[in-house]
Amino acid sequence: MKLAAFIRSRFGMITTVAMLVFPISVSVCRAQTVDEAVALAATWAKARFYLPATFNPTGTGPIGGGRNLGSIATALAAIPAGRKIPTVLYLHGCSGFGNSGSVNAMMLATAGYMVVAPDSFARPGRIRTCDGKRHVSIVPRAVNRRVRDMRVAEIRYALVRMKELPWVDQDNLFLFGHSQGATAASEYKGREFKARIVSGTRCTRGIGAPASEPMLAVFSTRDPWFKNPRTRNCRDRAKSPKVEVLELPGRDHLVARVPKARRAIVEFFARHTGR
Question: What is the distance between the alpha carbons of residues 190 and 210, in angstroms, rounded to a whole number?
Fold first, then answer.
């Protein structure tokens, strides 16, 4: 009895300390009570769409933004009936869509792809799991795992909703994930995509792409987010010859800013796009 009382008291102390040290995890637990269907629908409702210049009625080049923007709604409505457009499902990083999302999405739209980017932060109660300035996670590992599972669920949900878009070319459907989004994109095991690209990740949760699906991983060897240079990277985890890896020598996390990486990304999708 004394031992049981001791364990209960210790457990209570540990729980209290954990809540003080990691109060953010409490918010995650509360967020999990929100109906998942409602949460996923919110990520889609706030999705951003980027269109190639060809589909911008104003003739001002590629455009992008939420569907609530008049210019985006007008451009989407003006796509000719029956037209099928190669499309990329884009997953943003741990800080949200932001500048990295704009750079990546505009790069793809400029190359002729439609880009659909769900907003994970539209989920009720969604928390930020990282500090972008210090390049560190700010939550316990269990919370990070839960959020990464949420990101994979967002891929599945977006695929369902994208079938409602008549202009999506299902035969030329691609996946692109950056940073936290890249971890989810790398891990995703579905067969819906013709090819996928992950940037700013070392594929720490493995590579789930089917052996027959081409994949390109692009990262910088001295990326400030990579704390242990000895950690296995995408090249080490690749089990298929379809996986290509481009390691850059610098510190860039947003590799699309590096001309060599930018060319490799665009050329990779072009190689695997049927016209």
Answer: 7
Please give the Cα distance from 189 to 10 (Å, whole number): 41
CA distance 95 to 253: 13
Q: Are 89 and 75 in contact (CB under 8 A)?
A: no
Tokens 């998942």 belong to residue:
36
| CA 30 – CA 46 distance, rounded (Å) | 22
* Nearest one of 193, 231, 222, 188 to 206, comparing CA atoms: 188
Q: pLDDT tens digits, residue range 215-239?
A: 999 999 999 998 776 667 898 888 8
Q: What are the tokens at 145?
A: 């795992």
Angle at 102 between CA 172 and CA 273, to 5 degrees: 15
Give the tens place of pLDDT for each residue, 141-179: 999 899 999 999 999 999 999 999 999 999 999 999 999
Whole-angstrom distance, CA of residue 261 vs CA of residue 55: 26
- Which homologous superfamily does the CATH classification assign to the domain defined by 35-271? Alpha/Beta hydrolase fold, catalytic domain (3.40.50.1820)
pTM: 0.86
Phi, psi of 130 (to 5 degrees): -140, 165
